[in-house]
Amino acid sequence: MVPWLWERCSSSAELEQAVVDEKTKPADVLDQALTDLRLYRAQWKRILATTLSFLEVQAGDERLYTIGVTQRAVEERVAEIGQELRAVTGDVAIRVLGTWPQRGNVERYFKHRYRAHQQRPGSLTEYFAFDDAALVLRDLRRMTAKDLPPLERAILADEPSAIQQPLALKPRPVRWSSKPANSRRRSWPGWSRRDSGACMSGGQRVGRRWKRS
Description:
Layout: H1 3-8, H2 12-22, H3 27-48, E1 51-59, E2 62-70, H4 74-89, E3 92-101, H5 106-113, E4 118-119, E5 127-128, H6 133-140, H7 150-156, H8 164-169, E6 191-193, E7 200-201, E8 204-205, E9 210-212
Antiparallel strand pairs: 1-2, 1-3, 4-5, 6-9, 7-8
């Protein structure tokens, strides 16, 4: 993705305007602007499609907590976490303390805010120890259920934006090379094509496809 466009644009609306601005420019410039917009919306969809979960993990005498995101059922992710931990700590019990659909963007902030509480059971890194996890859970519960506006509903449904729709239907010109077919064949100095095999390198035969002329 072109860095300057990401620095200039911070929203879907700005990226769509960038597409409009590039319409009169060469096709490759317009294609890049459209690619930036598609990638931005794809990343936005990934966040909207994920569920944030906060879990309590009892591993022997140690009580840990983990936060994560998944696009599958939370129960499936809990089963995977249990399998990972059992390989390190033995028997574990996991309890789901809370889930927040469409809040995948909160995970990174949580890990940054509570990085001082991070624990590392074995090689695993996404675990925390809290003296009072109720305070952490209270902070998380301040997030209300997300009410998706029309734009986010469209992104979640993979619907193209108003700018993308007419451009997707517009036929693109086919570019043909003006060179004869024979002139586009790769030529190697000092070698001539034979019937089959690979090529020769350093003056020694490594196959039967090429022969010094």
